[in-house]
Design a protein that fits this description.
Layout: H1 6-11, H2 36-39, H3 41-46, H4 48-56, E1 62-67, H5 73-81, E2 85-91, H6 94-106, E3 113-117, E4 131-136, E5 141-142, H7 151-157, E6 158-159, H8 164-174, E7 175-186, H9 190-199, E8 203-211, E9 218-226, E10 234-235, E11 239-240, H10 250-256
Parallel strand pairs: 1-2, 1-4, 2-3, 4-7, 5-6, 8-10, 8-11
Antiparallel strand pairs: 7-9, 8-9
Helix pairs in contact: 4-5, 8-9
Length: 272
């Protein structure tokens, strides 16, 4: 992923489109987010998280918060999929926020997505308990793994000031009772999310692993849970992303082209 300075943004405003790479995000201006193997090979390596998370959101209507929205990949993917969702995209970094706002405009989603320059750990009190669904792709590397990088890139990809547990707390605080929190995290961070969800009184936890290859350990985990609801945890079969030759599997291609992923707890029929 390439850093974009404020100066270059003003001279050459980036565009999220079907053929343009921007911080690993692609969105089609008039349809679903599309398969990276078709439009942009780089996206297949860096941008599947946004599409996979968006594919799991099944709410028919209501308010959704995208915590740490970056340049808007998840928000745009959800907006293209769900016609009645009202999305607030919260981002703290000023350059990412400028890109987020621009991408909302170029995708003609001003009526659907509201950009918010804010620290997700210090959201305005008026937002507490006001969302039906909260979604997040939080920093996915531990701070001890971080090489010397710019502050912006560190904020985007490493657990620094905002530890994973605090992201869970923030997400639950923003939800209405029985609202749903969905996160995608590095698979080896699942235990942190699980512990914080249980401590926060969330239930009906569903785990959906993503494997790079059929014989490899899971690289990502999509985790969803409901606030103030009791219920046992369930682990769903998950999804293998790549064939032995490195191409997307048929199942992954279908998701990238717009097919939904049903993260439904076996013991319930809730889809909210």
């Amino acid at each position: 992923m390439t850093d974009v300075s404020a100066e270059s943004l003003s001279l050459h405003p980036p565009v999220i489109s079907g053929i343009t790479k921007l911080y690993g995000c692609i969105a089609h201006p008039s349809a679903h987010v599309r398969a990276p193997s078709i439009f942009n090979p780089i996206f297949r390596k860096n941008g599947t998280d946004a599409v996979m998370v968006a594919a799991t959101i099944q709410m028919k209507a209501g308010r959704l918060l995208d915590m740490g929205a970056g340049v808007g990949g998840i928000s745009l993917a959800i907006a293209h999929r769900l016609a009645d969702a009202q999305i607030t995209a919260a981002e703290i970094d000023p350059v990412n926020y400028a890109l987020l706002s621009h991408n909302i405009g170029i995708n003609q989603q001003h009526a659907r997505i509201r950009p918010l320059r804010a620290d997700i750990l210090s959201l305005p009190p008026v937002m507490a308990g006001s969302f039906d669904h909260v979604v997040s792709n939080p920093p996915f590397h531990h701070a001890s793994d971080a090489p010397s990088r710019s502050r912006r890139r560190t904020l985007a990809h490493y657990e620094t000031d905002a530890r994973l547990g605090e992201w869970v707390d923030a997400g639950l605080a923003a939800l209405k009772p029985k609202g749903r929190l969905t996160m995608i995290v590095r698979a080896d961070r699942t235990d942190i999310i699980m512990a914080r969800l249980r401590a926060g009184g969330a239930g009906e936890i569903v785990l959906f692993p993503l494997w790079s290859y059929q014989t490899s350990p899971a690289i990502r985990m999509i985790i969803t849970a409901r606030k103030a609801v009791k219920g046992a945890m369930a682990v769903l079969p998950g999804l293998v992303l790549h064939t032995p030759t490195g191409t997307l599997t048929h199942e992954a291609q279908q998701v990238m082209k717009g097919e939904s992923v049903q993260l439904v707890h076996p013991a319930t029929t809730h889809l909210s």
